[in-house]
Design a protein that fits this description.
about 30% helix; about 220 residues; six-stranded antiparallel beta sheet; about 35% strand
Amino acid sequence: MYSAKRIRRALATLALGVALVGFAQMVPSEAQGQRPSLGLLQGQINQLEAENNAQQAEIDALSAEADTAPIVVDSAGEVLGAVLDATKDDVDVLFDLPGLPLFVLQVLPQEIEVQGVTLWFESADCTGQAWVNAPDVQGVMGMVVAVPGSVPLPPTGRTFYVADPLDSPEMIFRLSWDQNKGFCEPADVGEVSAKRVTPLDLDSLFTPPFRVTTRERMQAQP
Protein backbone atom coordinates (compact mmCIF):
# COMPACT_ATOMS: atom_id res chain seq x y z
CA MET A 1 0.00 0.00 0.00
CA TYR A 2 1.23 3.54 -0.69
CA SER A 3 2.96 5.45 2.10
CA ALA A 4 2.18 9.08 2.93
CA LYS A 5 5.71 9.36 4.26
CA ARG A 6 7.15 8.26 0.89
CA ILE A 7 4.99 10.81 -0.94
CA ARG A 8 6.11 13.62 1.39
CA ARG A 9 9.77 12.61 0.91
CA ALA A 10 9.38 12.58 -2.87
CA LEU A 11 7.71 16.00 -2.86
CA ALA A 12 10.45 17.44 -0.64
CA THR A 13 13.15 16.10 -2.98
CA LEU A 14 11.33 17.50 -6.01
CA ALA A 15 11.07 20.94 -4.38
CA LEU A 16 14.78 20.88 -3.52
CA GLY A 17 15.68 19.97 -7.09
CA VAL A 18 13.64 22.86 -8.50
CA ALA A 19 15.35 25.27 -6.08
CA LEU A 20 18.80 24.03 -7.09
CA VAL A 21 17.99 24.43 -10.78
CA GLY A 22 16.97 28.02 -10.14
CA PHE A 23 20.17 28.66 -8.22
CA ALA A 24 22.32 27.12 -10.96
CA GLN A 25 20.68 29.32 -13.56
CA MET A 26 21.28 32.38 -11.38
CA VAL A 27 25.00 31.77 -10.70
CA PRO A 28 26.51 33.02 -14.02
CA SER A 29 25.01 36.51 -13.62
CA GLU A 30 25.50 36.96 -9.87
CA ALA A 31 28.73 35.15 -9.03
CA GLN A 32 31.58 37.60 -8.40
CA GLY A 33 35.04 36.92 -9.73
CA GLN A 34 34.41 33.30 -10.65
CA ARG A 35 32.18 32.36 -13.54
CA PRO A 36 31.57 28.62 -13.97
CA SER A 37 31.53 27.36 -17.52
CA LEU A 38 28.13 27.22 -19.17
CA GLY A 39 28.78 23.63 -20.15
CA LEU A 40 29.33 22.59 -16.52
CA LEU A 41 26.23 24.43 -15.37
CA GLN A 42 24.13 22.93 -18.15
CA GLY A 43 25.34 19.46 -17.17
CA GLN A 44 24.32 20.08 -13.55
CA ILE A 45 20.93 21.37 -14.68
CA ASN A 46 20.40 18.32 -16.89
CA GLN A 47 21.28 16.01 -14.00
CA LEU A 48 18.87 17.77 -11.64
CA GLU A 49 16.11 17.69 -14.22
CA ALA A 50 16.65 13.94 -14.69
CA GLU A 51 16.45 13.41 -10.93
CA ASN A 52 13.29 15.52 -10.75
CA ASN A 53 11.72 13.53 -13.56
CA ALA A 54 12.50 10.32 -11.69
CA GLN A 55 10.92 11.72 -8.51
CA GLN A 56 7.84 12.82 -10.46
CA ALA A 57 7.53 9.32 -11.91
CA GLU A 58 7.62 7.91 -8.37
CA ILE A 59 4.93 10.36 -7.25
CA ASP A 60 2.75 9.38 -10.22
CA ALA A 61 3.23 5.71 -9.38
CA LEU A 62 2.28 6.31 -5.73
CA SER A 63 -0.81 8.25 -6.81
CA ALA A 64 -1.86 5.38 -9.07
CA GLU A 65 -1.26 2.96 -6.21
CA ALA A 66 -3.47 5.09 -3.96
CA ASP A 67 -6.28 4.97 -6.52
CA THR A 68 -6.23 1.15 -6.54
CA ALA A 69 -5.72 0.63 -2.77
CA PRO A 70 -8.78 -0.87 -1.03
CA ILE A 71 -10.92 1.49 1.05
CA VAL A 72 -14.21 1.17 2.93
CA VAL A 73 -17.17 3.41 2.09
CA ASP A 74 -20.64 3.74 3.57
CA SER A 75 -24.04 3.70 1.88
CA ALA A 76 -23.64 7.35 0.84
CA GLY A 77 -20.17 6.86 -0.63
CA GLU A 78 -18.39 8.51 2.32
CA VAL A 79 -14.89 7.08 2.82
CA LEU A 80 -14.29 5.57 6.27
CA GLY A 81 -10.60 4.88 5.63
CA ALA A 82 -7.99 2.56 4.17
CA VAL A 83 -8.16 -1.22 4.57
CA LEU A 84 -5.25 -2.61 6.60
CA ASP A 85 -6.41 -6.21 6.91
CA ALA A 86 -9.47 -8.23 5.99
CA THR A 87 -11.32 -11.47 6.58
CA LYS A 88 -14.49 -12.74 4.98
CA ASP A 89 -16.48 -11.21 7.85
CA ASP A 90 -14.83 -7.87 8.63
CA VAL A 91 -12.00 -5.49 7.75
CA ASP A 92 -9.54 -3.47 9.82
CA VAL A 93 -9.87 0.16 8.73
CA LEU A 94 -7.49 3.05 9.39
CA PHE A 95 -9.57 6.13 10.22
CA ASP A 96 -8.05 9.58 9.59
CA LEU A 97 -10.57 12.14 10.86
CA PRO A 98 -9.74 15.86 11.21
CA GLY A 99 -8.56 16.90 14.66
CA LEU A 100 -8.26 13.34 15.99
CA PRO A 101 -5.40 10.85 16.28
CA LEU A 102 -5.28 8.02 13.75
CA PHE A 103 -7.11 4.92 14.93
CA VAL A 104 -8.01 1.47 13.65
CA LEU A 105 -11.41 -0.21 14.04
CA GLN A 106 -13.03 -3.38 12.75
CA VAL A 107 -15.84 -2.72 10.31
CA LEU A 108 -18.59 -5.21 9.50
CA PRO A 109 -21.18 -4.79 6.75
CA GLN A 110 -23.72 -3.31 9.18
CA GLU A 111 -21.64 -2.06 12.10
CA ILE A 112 -18.41 -0.47 13.31
CA GLU A 113 -17.09 -2.56 16.18
CA VAL A 114 -15.94 -0.60 19.23
CA GLN A 115 -14.97 -1.85 22.69
CA GLY A 116 -16.94 -0.80 25.76
CA VAL A 117 -15.32 1.16 28.55
CA THR A 118 -15.96 2.80 31.92
CA LEU A 119 -15.93 6.60 31.72
CA TRP A 120 -14.87 8.63 34.73
CA PHE A 121 -16.07 12.12 35.67
CA GLU A 122 -15.03 14.73 38.20
CA SER A 123 -18.65 15.81 38.58
CA ALA A 124 -21.25 13.95 40.62
CA ASP A 125 -23.64 13.52 37.66
CA CYS A 126 -21.38 12.35 34.78
CA THR A 127 -21.30 15.77 33.16
CA GLY A 128 -18.29 17.71 31.93
CA GLN A 129 -15.01 16.27 30.67
CA ALA A 130 -14.99 12.47 30.34
CA TRP A 131 -11.88 10.46 31.29
CA VAL A 132 -10.64 6.89 31.01
CA ASN A 133 -8.11 4.89 32.98
CA ALA A 134 -4.67 6.12 31.81
CA PRO A 135 -2.96 2.67 31.65
CA ASP A 136 -5.65 1.52 29.20
CA VAL A 137 -4.51 4.09 26.61
CA GLN A 138 -1.21 2.86 25.25
CA GLY A 139 0.54 2.29 21.93
CA VAL A 140 0.96 4.56 18.93
CA MET A 141 -2.64 4.70 17.68
CA GLY A 142 -5.67 6.49 19.06
CA MET A 143 -8.08 4.36 21.11
CA VAL A 144 -11.81 4.52 20.43
CA VAL A 145 -14.30 3.38 23.08
CA ALA A 146 -18.06 3.47 23.37
CA VAL A 147 -20.84 3.50 25.93
CA PRO A 148 -24.58 3.12 25.32
CA GLY A 149 -26.07 6.52 24.53
CA SER A 150 -28.75 8.01 26.76
CA VAL A 151 -30.51 9.16 23.59
CA PRO A 152 -30.81 6.55 20.81
CA LEU A 153 -28.41 7.26 17.96
CA PRO A 154 -28.76 5.40 14.64
CA PRO A 155 -28.10 2.58 14.20
CA THR A 156 -26.71 1.31 17.52
CA GLY A 157 -27.38 3.97 20.12
CA ARG A 158 -23.74 4.30 21.15
CA THR A 159 -21.67 7.30 22.15
CA PHE A 160 -18.04 7.09 21.02
CA TYR A 161 -14.94 8.64 22.58
CA VAL A 162 -11.39 8.92 21.26
CA ALA A 163 -8.30 8.88 23.49
CA ASP A 164 -4.87 10.02 22.28
CA PRO A 165 -1.99 7.83 23.56
CA LEU A 166 0.37 10.81 23.30
CA ASP A 167 -1.63 12.83 25.84
CA SER A 168 -0.03 12.98 29.27
CA PRO A 169 -1.99 11.34 32.10
CA GLU A 170 -3.49 13.63 34.69
CA MET A 171 -4.55 13.06 38.28
CA ILE A 172 -8.27 13.70 38.74
CA PHE A 173 -10.65 13.32 41.66
CA ARG A 174 -13.27 10.86 40.43
CA LEU A 175 -16.85 11.29 41.70
CA SER A 176 -19.05 9.46 39.16
CA TRP A 177 -18.79 6.99 36.32
CA ASP A 178 -20.64 5.27 33.49
CA GLN A 179 -19.64 1.60 33.58
CA ASN A 180 -20.65 0.95 29.98
CA LYS A 181 -24.30 0.89 31.03
CA GLY A 182 -25.61 4.10 29.54
CA PHE A 183 -26.41 5.73 32.88
CA CYS A 184 -24.53 7.51 35.65
CA GLU A 185 -23.60 6.02 39.00
CA PRO A 186 -21.64 7.23 42.04
CA ALA A 187 -18.03 6.08 41.65
CA ASP A 188 -15.50 4.76 44.09
CA VAL A 189 -14.42 8.24 45.12
CA GLY A 190 -10.72 8.96 44.94
CA GLU A 191 -7.77 10.37 43.04
CA VAL A 192 -6.90 8.39 39.90
CA SER A 193 -4.59 8.66 36.90
CA ALA A 194 -6.67 9.36 33.81
CA LYS A 195 -6.55 10.51 30.19
CA ARG A 196 -9.03 12.81 28.48
CA VAL A 197 -11.35 11.46 25.79
CA THR A 198 -13.00 13.39 22.97
CA PRO A 199 -16.62 12.63 21.97
CA LEU A 200 -17.12 11.30 18.44
CA ASP A 201 -20.46 10.40 16.86
CA LEU A 202 -19.39 7.75 14.34
CA ASP A 203 -22.99 6.67 13.79
CA SER A 204 -23.85 10.13 12.45
CA LEU A 205 -20.73 10.37 10.28
CA PHE A 206 -21.14 7.02 8.53
CA THR A 207 -24.26 5.05 7.63
CA PRO A 208 -24.24 1.30 6.90
CA PRO A 209 -24.13 -0.86 4.93
CA PHE A 210 -20.37 -0.62 4.47
CA ARG A 211 -18.45 -2.07 1.55
CA VAL A 212 -14.90 -2.41 0.26
CA THR A 213 -13.98 -0.67 -2.99
CA THR A 214 -11.22 1.52 -4.50
CA ARG A 215 -11.13 5.19 -5.47
CA GLU A 216 -10.55 4.14 -9.08
CA ARG A 217 -13.78 2.11 -9.08
CA MET A 218 -15.68 4.95 -7.44
CA GLN A 219 -14.46 7.40 -10.08
CA ALA A 220 -15.48 4.98 -12.85
CA GLN A 221 -19.07 4.76 -11.59
CA PRO A 222 -21.57 6.87 -13.54
